[in-house]
Design a protein that fits this description.
Radius of gyration: 22 Å
Oligomer: single chain
Strand content: 15-25%
Number of helices: 15
Helix content: 25-40%
CATH class of one domain: Alpha Beta
Strand order of the largest sheet: 1-14-13-17-15-16
CATH architecture of one domain: 3-Layer(aba) Sandwich
Largest sheet: 6 strands, mixed
Shape: globular
Length: 445
């Protein structure tokens, strides 16, 4: 079968999948959990607990504060110690709820144990609206990194119609394997979650796109779906950023999302495979999203692996479980090397957005000296959106933000392909991100 891919640009960084095939290992419960209220794109959740209040595992501690918002739940039984502002991994101040953990030995509250899963008949009886409401109340968000509230994604705007659900199993970001390990270990749960998403958005067809460097995951789904005609598996060419939403839609359907449009404008609803797993957990097991698989990796890390981490666990304790910080560490990144962001604080808590923790040695951490642009246009040739990164950087330096909007800068995926290929080592993506931040502050015309 021919491997499908997107049309414009793209690069081929080394996969560096050091943790491929490693099983999921659960990290023990910390004595203290710190939960940020901004766990999704959109409005931060509204805190509904007070200091001194006891909470059970799975209890909602912050409710959605707007349509584009998602509630936050405690992953442990414990007592609310304080509500305060703390710094996130990048050093920004965030409102958070700090919970002192109880029952560390069992790590499971009795109330959670007593919660019985839904039977298949009960699941089958759920209406699309009930599925969407349950997913929303469970705090499920996109686990590919964007953390867009899944309830919002499943609520198709009036006048639009979905034709196909696409599950993103590309995982094209170097080093990360958290999606791969889920696909290999729990394809049945991901498929069950996929069918719930299909029912919620009213479609009878789905495609699971997986990069060809994950043959075990492809084989697992093909075995499970043999004889099924509603869900298909499509191997994808290894090319970054294959997992970009617009790139994936084009690769699997041949349709393009119009500029400023939504995936549903191309007839598609796209969710990450880990999100589909979380949908399954919310519907079948009545579990809110309180934990996720995180790839903890790096060339010199003693115990790299795929760890099941409770949201709110500190980055430092996760790294400690992976063998501790190597002496030659130069940088720790939240996510992968292409789209991830360097961390300035390791005492910050992990969030729903963090799919990986990459520990790089000093030798791989230093940026090379920036040199003048030689107008080679390599950044243009690899841009998957067909943009002109070199020109956008120049305008960003000059603070000509009105002009940069005419170059469609807001369509930038922030994939980092331009910076990766630049022979002059210019920080193209940094200046593009800066310009986008400034444009968002400008009055809308």
């Amino acid at each position: 079968m021919k491997l499908k891919t997107f049309r414009k640009g793209g690069i081929h960084p080394a996969p560096s999948k050091l943790t491929s095939g490693m099983p999921i290992v659960e990290i023990g419960v910390s004595s203290e959990i710190r939960l940020e209220l901004a766990e999704s794109i959109g409005v931060p959740a509204r805190c509904i607990v007070k200091p001194g209040q006891s909470v059970s595992a799975g209890e909602m501690i912050a409710e959605a504060a707007a349509f584009v918002s998602a509630p936050v739940h405690s992953p442990v039984a414990g007592t609310v110690k304080r509500i305060e502002k703390l710094r996130d991994p990048q050093g920004f101040w965030r409102e958070a709820v700090v919970i002192a953990t109880e029952h560390i030995e069992t790590a499971v509250d009795e109330a959670e144990e007593a919660l019985s899963p839904r039977t298949q008949d009960e699941v089958d009886a759920l209406t699309p609206k009930e599925i969407i409401d349950i997913v929303g109340n469970a705090g499920v968000v996109g686990l590919g990194g964007a953390t867009f509230p899944t309830r919002v994604k499943l609520s198709i705007p009036e006048g639009k119609k979905a034709e196909v659900v696409i599950l993103n199993g590309a995982e094209c970001e170097p080093f990360l394997t958290c999606d791969e390990v889920l696909m290999c270990g729990y394809p049945d749960r991901i498929v069950a979650g996929c069918r719930l998403i299909m029912k919620a958005v009213g479609v009878d067809r789905a495609i699971i796109g997986i990069e060809a460097n994950k043959p075990q995951a492809i084989a697992a789904f093909r075995r499970l779906l043999k004889g099924c005609d509603d869900i298909s598996v499509q191997p994808l060419k290894m090319k970054y950023p294959q997992g970009g939403e617009k790139q994936l839609i084009y690769a699997l359907t041949g349709k393009e999302v119009p500029e400023g449009g939504l995936p549903v404008d191309a007839g598609a609803v796209v969710d990450n495979v880990a999100t589909a797993y979380a949908v399954y957990d919310a519907i079948y097991n009545r579990k809110p999203l309180t934990q996720r698989v995180v790839t903890v990796t790096g060339p010199h890390l003693k115990k790299p692996g795929n760890y099941l981490v409770k949201i709110g666990t500190t980055i430092s304790s996760i790294i400690e479980a992976a063998g501790g910080l190597p002496e030659d560490t130069g940088k720790v990144i939240a996510g992968g090397p292409m789209m991830g962001k360097a961390m300035s604080r390791l005492d910050a808590p992990t969030t729903k957005a963090i799919s990986g923790i990459l520990v790089l040695p000093e030798s791989m951490s230093k940026r090379r000296s920036e040199e003048p642009c030689i107008r080679c246009a390599k950044c243009v040739s690899v841009c998957p959106m067909g943009l002109e990164p070199y020109q956008m950087m120049n305008l960003s330096i000059a603070k000509r933000f009105e002009d940069i909007t005419k170059l469609h800068v807001m369509s930038c995926l922030e994939c980092g392909s331009c910076s990766y290929v630049c022979p002059s080592h210019r920080p193209l993506l940094d200046y593009i991100r800066y310009a986008k931040q400034e444009i968002r502050k400008m009055p809308k015309k």
